[in-house]
Specification:
8 strands, phospholipid metabolism, alpha/beta, 54% helix, 2 domains, 331 residues, eight-stranded mixed sheet, phospholipid biosynthesis, nucleotide-binding, G3P_DH_NAD-dep_C
Amino acid sequence: MKVAVLGAGAWGTALAIHLAKKYHVTLWARNRSHISGMKKARSNPKYLGNFLFPENLSLENDLHAAVGPSDLIISAVPTSAFRKLLFELNVINKLPIIWANKGLEVGTGMLPHEVAIDVLGDPSLSSRDFGVISGPSFAAELVRGLPTAVTLAATSEELCQFAANAFHHGCMRIYTSNDVAGVSVGGALKNVIAIAAGISDGMGFGNNARAAIITRGLAEISRFGESIGANADTFSGLAGTGDLVLTCTGEYSRNREVGLRLAQGRTINEILDGLGHVAEGVFTAKEVINRGALLGIEMPITFQVSQVIHGGKAPRDAVQDLLSREIKAEH
């Protein structure tokens, strides 16, 4: 089998390295100089350090050449670039697509699976199936061969098993699901809650506060997911609780790092300029609030994160406003 991994950031590269231990993989990126540098180094020092590429991993900046001979396409581009990529892929061929990007599209508030339906069409009415892989997974640990378990959900059982078998080897364990919406929601919204956890940690509020943020953040994620038809059980699994806990506590979490730096008084522009990687939660927070308002659901933690990032609110004031909310029954 031949696999094309589209997007040569940290996670895309880690997935490509993992898959190349079993299959021939082409790792694609638009940036010609980035591809050239990786060809020379046989690694991705810009995003993933000096982990050497397997012999089965080739590099390409021509999209047609990358996906033409492939049996499966994995998208790991940022959510902001996902729609454009899908339009291009739709012209090239009708291969199944699994994406690993997480977030809501800026401007539309669409989740990746909704963008896919918008561009590729409803899979129930066509032969173009797609899916999502998500869960507690840091790129730096996967490439070190450390145990990693994630969820893969797809629009057909055939694609789900086909793609799961591709990933399920070595240190990676795959659990399957048919809840594409729920897995997409979990992957997107946990990044916003991780920013809140980073703010709390950065201000020295301790373990109690972090645990509260994770728990009540999960309630917000579940509320949002169920309102768009996701399965509630998904949020107690790897794509929900698992990914949330990791992103709120792990040392490699970019979104938690954003929160830590916000707590230091740095502006969001300064933080993003110095981060060197995409932190999807920054762009997702505002879109979630806008969509949550349309759905008529409360998301107080997400709202305060959005206020800090986009409204210039002081982190300490945001925390105080959360603490002073009226007493409510826990749901």
